[in-house]
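Let us work through a complete example step by step.
Step 1: write down the sequence.
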Amino acid sequence: MDHSTDPAGERRRAAVRGSIEGLAHGDAFGERFFGLFRPEEEARRLIADRRLPPEPDWPWTDDTAMALDLLAVLVEHGEVRQRALAERFAATHRADPGRGYGSGMHALLPRVAAKPAKWREVARALFGGEGSLGNGAAMRVAPLGAWFHDDLDRAAAQAARSAEVTHAHPQGIAGAVAVAVAAALNARGEPPALSAVAARTPEGPVRDGLLRAAGLPPGTAPEEAAAALGSGRRIRADDTVPFALWCAAAHPGDLPAALWTAAAGLGDVDTTCAITGGVVGAATGAVPLGEEWRGRREQLPGWVREL
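Step 2: predict the structure and record it as tokens.
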């Protein structure tokens, strides 16, 4: 990343740092509401009262691990180099496979580690040759949108390249494009209106969901929005991205409110909160969360703070 002192360079650095911090906070915070950690009824009570989960330590998951890999490739190359990204994903998975990776990544990444030159073929072979349309490419991409925020076309194109490494299905790619565009808009100081994001998202269920989200009446409760749009229970991009970006668009300058809103939808909570946090954090950074919240989350690698 350019370390010059020009205002544009500093703005980009701040947006990228804010986005990865917001993503990691959302990931670790949202993970605490999974049924693996507490019953849904208890989760709903905590969310309704806006009481932080009581655990003192909040590890992050594969959402953040893969976002860090993507960001590391951008730092090294200034753009998405697909084989380099595939190799990073595979190495990180091999070193720590217990971060909560989905079944598709457990199937894909060991094969990539064995034959990195074949990453494209093995990604396309997932799910009977359709490729993954899951939410994994979307969950990790917000910092890329912040990185390329000065060029929305390039943000969308680079997001698509980053998605193809693991999510060859067009809707897995569309989810990543939508999140990157939303993060880029927010980093630019332009609240990520859902209609504007939809206009740059490839046609299909993800785009249709964004347009449905844009049409929800003002004052719609998060639980109602989740019921209408999906909140990741099917772990698909079209079942996750519209709701997460609805949460971000409703609170583009208020990271705590955005994350509580996303959590209220339950579902794939770490992923909806990671997407929401990455988009909103590109504008706000993580400081608004407060010391108690920030003190519980697992720290990011030191190189992130040096961006």
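Step 3: interpret the result. The mean pLDDT is 95.
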